[in-house]
Amino acid sequence: MRKAEIAIIGGTGQETLLNYPQRVINGTPYGLASPILIGEIDGKTVAFMPRHGVRHGVPPHKVNYRANIYALRQIGAKRIIATNAVGAINPNLKPGNLVVPNDLVDFTKFRQSTFYDEEPVTHVDLSQPYCPEIRSALIGAAKGIGLEVTARAVLVCTEGPRLETPAEIRMFGRMSCDIVGMTGMPEVALARELEMCYASVCLVTNMAAGLQKRLTAQELVKVAKKTASVLEQILRETVKHLPTKRQCPCAHALEDARFRG
Fold first, then answer.
1. For residue 118, is it within any domain?
2. pLDDT tens, residue by residue, 149-187
3. According to the model, what pLDDT value does residue 258 have?
4. Span 212-219, mean pLDDT?
5. Domain range enclosing 46
6. CA distance 234 to 176
7. How far is CA 50 from CA 43, 135, 182, 220, 261, in A?
8. Looking at residue 108, which CATH number applies to its domain?
9. Cα three-residue angle 140-136-128, rounded to 5 degrees
10. How far is Cα 215 from Cα 156, in angstroms, rounded to an integer?
11. How confident is the model over 42-48, as a mean pLDDT?
């Protein structure tokens, strides 16, 4: 099987990122993962996984997150760059803005969020949930092509598939959350449990509930399509400038994480 140390988890339509792509379908102990394309970006072998499937047919609460992350590890991925469509809670953010979050809050309810349901009891540290090396590369890539990017923000992940209520958004705002989406967790935690680096670049597609009169799925898609080329450019530049060797703590996440009685 072709291997790739860098993986991108993104939305449907971003497959054009890769040169010479080959499709891989992976079975895992956790079920079937989303299809993987393995190709090249700037001479580096890179995998791309459409989180919601090839035709965007899998809603966020039904994504098999464990299978997806495990499948990427099976093909040799050590770094994951994710993209997320989010709503703005912070009124200083507007549709079309780019955000690289540095922290997150998990409000999902029913998702399988760990690989460690049995011994050894394992508690990974999420004091720094996103990989600092990938975050730095994402921020540098955006600024390098002349784009403004919010480099610090808290993402709250909700279960979906419904959008949030105005009361929920007010609550999240009081909790210092800046953006809201449905796909940030449990990807972050699962990647850390496998000692994989993970960070995300988020596109603000709308103001969250209560900050604009009405939200529609078509509105979100419209903004996403309008800025798709910008996201692709950031991802290409990020892959290009990632250091060859990992110097971040993600690679050693399990060293002191396991309970020893």
1. yes
2. 999 999 999 999 999 999 999 999 999 999 999 999 999
3. 86
4. 75
5. 6-252
6. 27
7. 21, 21, 15, 17, 41
8. 3.40.50.1580
9. 155
10. 18
11. 95
Report which residue type is found at 1. M
And the tokens for 11?
Answer: 């939305």
Q: Is residue 257 part of a domain?
A: no
Query: Looking at residue 261, what is its pLDDT?
Result: 63
Q: Name the amino acid, one letter, at 186.
A: P
pTM: 0.94
Token pair 């992940």 is at which residue?
Answer: 157
Number of domains in the chain: 1
> In this structure, is residue 109 part of a structural domain?
yes
Residue 113 within a domain? yes
DSSP secondary structure of the chain: ----SEEEEE-TTGGGG-EEEEEE--EETTEEPPPEEEEEETTEEEEEEETTTTTT-S-GGG--HHHHHHHHHHTT--EEEEEEEEEE-STT--TT-EE--SEEEEE--S----S-SSSSPB----SS-S-HHHHHHHHHHHHHTT---B---EEEEE--SSPPPHHHHHHHHHTT--EEESSSTTHHHHHHHTT-EEEEEEEEEEEPTTSSS---HHHHHHHHHHTHHHHHHHHHHHHHHS-SS--SGGGGTTTTTB---
Radius of gyration of the chain (CA): 17
- Parallel, antiparallel or unpaired: strands 154-158 and 179-181: parallel
